[in-house]
């Protein structure tokens, strides 16, 4: 983030010490774990202590990490987390392109005693023209092409009364809107990346080789 005068401010992505993680070094001068930010850190501790849901979710997340670190898959971690927070009905906000994967996830949820309920992104069948997207901005120009409707996905899952919602491959931005309108907590199973087989971090791992073209 730029400073008030436009200069680049150092932050956690400038750090090579990571004393916040290890606790055996010295914080660098620009560290966000400093006296200036101490009121914010202390406020968050109070939130964990006094807000029932926040504290419960924070503890459940930490317990899943501690009990299954480097042993459980993301699917398994979601199951463990859902169990710890007492979630029974699990909403699945899925991309239609990943509907088969969502069906497999739902099968696992049922096998573990959960109640899955899925809503696909194209629900409602609203053409993109309706929200002001011209034909030349469609993937397939000149014909019917429905919008992804994350707001409807969220509202339908809200109506269903889900305890936890899981994103399966929603588009960039659509996932943001889904999270904004979801009443239930949201976690992600799949992050969409059509080019990299839904493994977006591969672009970072190959930044020094194949994908360095993005820096040009």
Descriptive account of the structure:
It is a single chain. The protein has 216 residues and is of the alpha/beta class. It is 38% helix and 11% strand. The protein is built from eight helices and four strands. Strands 2-1-3-4 form a four-stranded parallel β-sheet, sandwiched between helices. The radius of gyration is 21 Å and the shape is globular. The two termini are 21 Å apart. The model has no long low-confidence stretch (mean pLDDT 95).
Topology readout:
Blueprint: H1 19-22, H2 38-50, H3 52-68, H4 74-84, E1 89-94, H5 99-111, E2 115-120, H6 150-160, E3 164-168, H7 174-181, E4 185-190, H8 202-205
Parallel strand pairs: 1-2, 1-3, 3-4
Helix pairs in contact: 2-3, 3-4, 6-7
**Content-based structural category:** alpha/beta
**SS strand fraction:** 5-15%
**What is the number of helices?**
8
- Quaternary structure classification: single chain
Any key phrases for this structure?
216 residues, alpha/beta, 4 strands, globular
Outline:
This protein has 216 residues and is α/β, with parallel strands linked by helices. It is 38% helix and 11% strand.
